[in-house]
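hiii so my PI (J.) wants the whole complex modelled not just the main chain, which honestly fair. so below is everything: two entries, each one labled with what it is. i double checked the lines twice but i was tired so who knows lol
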Amino acid sequence: EIVLTQSPGTLSLSPGERATLSCRASQSVDSGYLAWYQQKPGQAPRLLIYGASSRAPGVSDRFSGSGSGTDFTLTISRLEPEDFAMYYCQQYDSSPRTFGQGTKVEIK
Amino acid sequence: QVTLEESGPVLVKPTETLTLTCTVSGFSFSNARMGVTWIRQPPGKALEWLAHIFSNDERSYNTSLKSRLTISEDTSKSQVVLTMTNMDPVDTATYYCARNPGDEYDISGYYTLDYWGQGTLVTVSS
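here's the output for the full assembly
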């Protein structure tokens, strides 16, 4: 199965700054079938990015995804107060599907 | 409006079998490539993918939990059921179901997870 490793574990930034989150796969996600989710405390995850780079409906253009093969990135261009949360990547290229362990974006 | 709602016991005893139901509305489970996935999250920990079932009856399970999991669907009731046998305190978690949107997305999004239930916390304790 594909193991996803996210880094860093925690990202401490100020509002207005740029956030760069990494997701590395143990083997190639050939089709680019990688998604990013945002989760706030007490809430279910929310789909942000699918297919490595496509924004889900209603998602702000502050969020962008990139990457291919084994290395993927989620970028938040200018952090807004509501963006401080946990972020998970997930591959759906092969079964079993797997999630990364998450990156927490916290206010510095 | 697409909704998913998890239901089941809030407390189970060790060695018991857990049965969770995901009731969906606002979409037809019979649509091409559409599916439902179960995910769990222990308190303070990461998401863990458990199982999925698709409209073509394809099923897949978490490798390490495969022997304990069964996923099934009742299209007439718009429900997907997950059973997990031999429950242990380490299985204490919030259990979510989520939709795989199939043809409602372009091909790169068929199997992502676009709508989620609010989750149900299951505690395993004697």
